[in-house]
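Task card 7
Instruction: Convert sequence to structure tokens.
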Amino acid sequence: MPQIARMLRLNLLTLTILISLWSTGHTATDAISYQGRLTMADGNPVSNGQHSIQFAIYDDSLAGQQLWSETATIVTLNGLFTHLLGTINPLPDELFKNPDRLYLQVVFEEESIEPRSILTGAPTAGVASDLIVTDHNDTLVIETDALQRRLSLFDQKGQEQVKLQGSGAGGQVVLNNQDGTTGISLHGGLNGDESVVLPDSSVSSSEIIDETGYVTWINVNPVTMVTLEMTDLINLEIETPADGYIVLEGKCYVELSGTTGPNVALVQIDASEGGGSQFPYYTLAGLGGYVNTNESYFPVYVTRVYWRQAGVHYFRMEGRANNAAPALARSWDHILTAVFYPTSYGVVSKVSTTPDGHPNATPHDIKDPQDPDGRSRFYQMDMRYFERRSKDTTDRSNK
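Output:
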């Protein structure tokens, strides 16, 4: 009595469905490729040649209702054969729409082969009449109306876990949690908070590269300023993960007293200790005369931008008294903040007494009020030049 050794497997069935799909160019239910091997009871293959075989699909593994059938003539070679189900009697489109289970019954020369083979999710995956699957240079392309249909993957409990969908704004990918709530969501056509949704604490600091960061420090203690000598009011250290811009902002209060004559204090941000005033980055606080010698208070705000390569950098807010005793200048409530930006989105200008090798530095003849007898030529330049120069140097060194 002849037997049939079925070679049907889920992955094989999936592959043969795609082959039949490519050959027809229509729906995934046009034809399903079925391969098998026929042997006798002693294990030897049936004779080579033509044989009659019947295929039928039922909604039950033992009895049930027959949903489709066809009888075909196959050709065996060493017992092996291939047949496209649906080429004689077309498979109806509604056959694979939401079935609980489908089972394939094979009858070879009036001998029923038991048990029936279950048809799993592979043939039911392509019931859309507008679904086209093609092979382009070893790339599988699935085409459908992205605005009307979506691709969903479900778990064994029927819970949607993965969703791919298009819209008029762009594509959407959603990965759900086990309870069906959104875990990760990407919207290609949106901006703002809804474009990317990630779970809480999904990205750690060690996984973020070259991000924007900041450091801030506070010194509330009073500092007495020295006449014509820079004194540190507050110091700050920042370590940047990459080359970029460091924007510094400082504030404090200045108390001036002791004289009815001129009493002025100068405050600025600097990267080096001591030195003189650096036009135009300083702020002056004070008056040319006072009604009495009591305390007068002035708020001070200073800012400055630096271009720095990756590494540890030190900055300070410093100040000096411009007038000698009995004039007294003190400051307190100092706050200094440094913010790192890995890139810019427009011109980042700088003013310096030297062009620093910048090819497009623009000269300006301006008198520094704090140094009227000193150098009057200053150069304004775009700091992005130093960014590009640093990048070019790094690229050359890596070659």
